[in-house]
Amino acid sequence: MRTIETIQELKAWVKETKGSGETIGLVPTMGFLHEGHISLVNKAKAENGRVVMSIFVNPAQFGPNEDFDRYPRDLERDQRLAEQAGTDVIFAPSAEEMYPRESQISISAGALADVLCGAKRPGHFDGVLKVVAKLFHLTEADRAYFGQKDAQQLAIIESMVEDYNFPLSIRRGETVREEDGLAKSSRNVYLSEAERREAPLLQQALQLGKQAAIEGRDPVSVVRQYLDGRISGEIDYIELLSYPALAKEIEGEAILAIAVQFEKARLIDNLIFHVKGN
Amino acid sequence: MRTIETIQELKAWVKETKGSGETIGLVPTMGFLHEGHISLVNKAKAENGRVVMSIFVNPAQFGPNEDFDRYPRDLERDQRLAEQAGTDVIFAPSAEEMYPRESQISISAGALADVLCGAKRPGHFDGVLKVVAKLFHLTEADRAYFGQKDAQQLAIIESMVEDYNFPLSIRRGETVREEDGLAKSSRNVYLSEAERREAPLLQQALQLGKQAAIEGRDPVSVVRQYLDGRISGEIDYIELLSYPALAKEIEGEAILAIAVQFEKARLIDNLIFHVKGN
């Protein structure tokens, strides 16, 4: 496995790989890998000749008061895990390599970013689209892999690909969970022991909420009641929306999503399922 | 030469062409071809295995009071001219094919669109970037060709390619002119006979302005004085800016640009040249 730090070297590898007729699968990450990332690599390996994983803690998607500086990083460990999973290339550029100048042209996620995490993290998804568009172009990937845990991100990226006819397919990976149901996340390391014991309640609450939604009851109050008094973190939002359109009117696929701010970690989780329309 | 109207058919052609190892040159146009377009095709033919020309009067780049409906169109004539020039494929989609739904994600030209034509045509360059990003992705072109007559468009597209690492090169084509100096334009057909006689004065004025700028005099007043009382059209702007940054502070390449609104045609022209900084 090669680790590439410059755009020039990446482009040379892409040219050589494409020239030999191989397809390229891209797994974009911010590193500090967990089984969720590895499951995306496995999927990418099954569908492409070569797999490139980007590891880049993207400053453009962090707000001024967010956790960019203390976002967990461990490139050596990531290299070991990525190689074990069969990754061919890690692309781990510096921020200066990715953003050598201030962007003149901006991409905006628009109304899709007005709900869920987007409403709480202004500019976050614009920053995601900025780096993702760059990575799509730099790797010339045939397929790119994103986990459903970041369901809003996935929906917004799918929209960009559709609106602008990017020549690649977005492939969805199912959320990978701990045995007790907690969604794997790089940020889980920042949970205190007590918070770690509470964290699986998010998924339990969502399961109850899903059942309620399917039965035509209000899932948001079900989730809220279940968590009330049982978690120390503060609920940021609980929302039921259509998926992937993220609209209030639901017919067909829906997402029930939650975000909870614990002391040092903000956790998100969701369930995507089918509900009948009115 | 083939004319392709659907994205599906275009993608099949691109896949086949790329698969055979050929490079693709893209000449994006709104049709009603003139020698300016043909010179871009010639350039594209010299540098690529295959040349695709898009012909699409892009509704997204016309304002509500602009000339979208009466923009000149003649596909049969365009097909003849494009084929004579050696174009391999014309891509001439309908508006529904290009925009099957309202875009969720937007691209904005930002401050680069605050000067020259952008200041007079709000949203114009956002619409240009929208269609150009789509065409770049759909054709998977190695090189795309744009004329310097639309110098602000060229600068903004170059910025998008740089900011987002599109895997293609933008190639600049020199402005092609009538014998009397008038820049070739599809909109010239809408000049009255009297206006057509006045139109070459724009280029003459710019030449005098260029000389003034190089000598350290104010080119804008030189251009304005030269045209004062000699053209019936209304001057929309005369501006000297750096190029391609389009900033007020000039050191090195500069653009002296003009736009004039005649009765039915809005003409633009420019000169790009080297000036010494202060």
From TrEMBL, chains A, B:
GO terms for cellular component: cytosol. Its main location: cytoplasm. Its EC number is 6.3.2.1. The active site is at H37 (proton donor). Keywords: ATP-binding, Cytoplasm, Ligase, Nucleotide-binding, Pantothenate biosynthesis. ATP binds at residues 30-37, 147-150, 176, 184-187. It holds the Pfam family Pantoate_ligase. Beta-alanine binds at Q61. Transmembrane segments: none annotated. GO terms for biological process: pantothenate biosynthetic process. One of its GO terms (molecular function) is ATP binding. (R)-pantoate binds at Q61, Q153. It catalyses: (R)-pantoate + beta-alanine + ATP = (R)-pantothenate + AMP + diphosphate + H(+). It is an enzyme of class 6 (ligase). Belongs to the pantothenate synthetase family. The reaction proceeds by a bi uni uni bi ping pong mechanism. This is Pantothenate synthetase.
